[in-house]
Amino acid sequence: MRLVFLGTTGYHPNAVRQTACLMIPEMGLVLDAGTGFFRVADYLATPELVILLSHAHVDHVVGLTYLFDVLKDHPNVQVTIRASREHLQAVREHLFHPLLFPVELPHSFETVTDPFDLPGGGTGHVHAQHDHPGESLAYRLTWPGRSMAYVTDTVANPDETEFFEGVDLLVHECYFADADREWAEQTGHSYTSAVAEAARRAGVGRLYLVHMNPMGPEPDAIGLETARATFPETYLATDLLEIEF
Fold it and tell me: Which of 24, 163, 194, 206 has its CA 20 to 30 A from that of 200?
């Protein structure tokens, strides 16, 4: 199964990264709809497109307004946007407010429940994370013989890893380097060592880091070798990177 990283930074795009968006093309499944969402058009090849939102902060949802371009050459695709009830309400009332976005989009909204069905015969689970302002949802996605978890906008806690324990692939936010640990905890984000230790304790197969500080030095804003000292199978995701899991 192929995972494509369409956006790997947080808060705002920079010269080399768009904001949060991942896609599993063969399943028509997208995780978050940041500014990288416009790239979905290049990979869309299924009759349905399911978008799972972690939360409603602008850097994770603004790409929903790009749906017209995404569907330009795919007019019959059915689009479903799933998230918590509160986050869907925020998107409906604010992002899609007529004074901000005055055209009706071709989509339906569904409140995500635990568990839920995935395209391709898989099963999804959600976990609410209360340590980020406004709360966010982590997703664990399982198909026969493979699994992954997407965990973003949270403070990594190595003592609380049950939700993604044993997954083949963990995609986890890492906004700050260790030097900014206090700032990470104050803002509801993660820092390098904590993410790596969480991956080690959870016994995951591979760890890919996303949602890095767009103002940090490129190509390594968070100190990859620091993470690998704890969990060697750690990698920095970059925009348009494609991996198999």
Answer: 24
Residue 226 has which token pair? 């620091």
C-beta of residue 166 within 8 angstroms of C-beta of residue 204: yes
Whole-angstrom Cα distance, residue 243 to residue 237?
10
Containing structural domain, residue 140: 2-244
Can you give the CATH number for the domain in which 152 is found?
3.60.15.10
**The pTM is what?**
0.96
